[in-house]
């Protein structure tokens, strides 16, 4: 008897459904979407190992990868977040049976392999990805004058500080002269 895996078609989520508040670095959500390119059916025999394919549109860093089966009441098929796999919140029926096909996710390959498939694995599987992008923009010339003004101000402040320091701590030059010696009293030999 055969087991069938159904991969759901791609769907783009609207940004208002998953709101991301940009931080000071202009961090913005690039996309959150279902990854599979169309509905596909994968057929396997009990005990087989199957690959559930998922590919990101580009090779940029993936911050969140979730493989889910909508009929599961809790847990995930596979969850990768903060640069690591989270087996602690994986559905018990998938523990130690699911892993990334390519642990480095090179070239956007986010496929997972499911080992030792059973009839209970029959269902629809969805791959969700969240990618973040940092966008830094700088207008030409907008910081040149500010940088020059700050640099000159710092230079003048340092120069004045050095002059004040040298004047204040300049050693006081004194000349020491011997006081004129008093002439020794003349002792005269007076004979009496």
From TrEMBL:
Major place of residence: membrane
Pfam families: V-set (PF07686)
Keywords: Immunoglobulin domain, Membrane, Transmembrane, Transmembrane helix
Domain named Ig-like: residues: 24-137
InterPro entries with a match to the protein in the record: Ig-like_dom, Ig-like_dom_sf, Ig-like_fold, Ig_sub, Ig_V-set, IgSF_BTN/MOG
GO BP terms in the entry: regulation of cytokine production; T cell receptor signaling pathway
Transmembrane segments: 143-166
Annotated GO MF terms: signaling receptor binding
Domain of life: Eukaryota
The keyword Phosphoprotein belongs to this UniProt entry's keyword annotation: no
Localization annotation: Membrane
Gene3D superfamilies per UniProt: Immunoglobulins (2.60.40.10)
SUPFAM superfamilies xrefs: Immunoglobulin
GO cellular component: external side of plasma membrane
PANTHER family per UniProt: BUTYROPHILIN, ICOS LIGAND
Annotated protein name in UniProt: Ig-like domain-containing protein
Protein's organism: Mastacembelus armatus (zig-zag eel)
């Amino acid at each position: 008897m055969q087991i069938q895996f159904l991969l759901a078609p791609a769907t783009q989520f609207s940004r208002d459904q998953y709101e991301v508040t940009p931080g000071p670095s202009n961090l913005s959500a690039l996309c959150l979407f279902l990854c599979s390119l169309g509905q596909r059916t994968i057929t396997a025999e009990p005990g087989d190992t199957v690959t559930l394919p998922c590919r990101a549109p580009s090779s940029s860093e993936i911050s969140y990868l979730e493989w889910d089966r909508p009929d599961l009441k809790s847990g995930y098929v596979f969850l990768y977040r903060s640069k690591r796999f989270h087996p602690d919140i994986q559905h018990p029926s998938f523990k130690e049976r699911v892993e990334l096909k390519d642990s480095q996710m090179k070239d956007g390959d986010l496929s997972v392999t499911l080992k030792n498939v059973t009839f209970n694995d029959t269902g629809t599987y969805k791959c969700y990805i969240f990618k973040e992008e940092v966008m830094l923009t700088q207008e030409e010339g907008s910081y040149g004058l500010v940088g020059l003004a700050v640099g000159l101000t710092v230079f003048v402040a340092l120069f004045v500080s050095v002059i004040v320091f040298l004047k204040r701590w300049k050693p006081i030059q004194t000349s020491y002269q011997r006081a004129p010696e008093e002439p020794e009293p003349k002792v005269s030999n007076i004979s009496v």
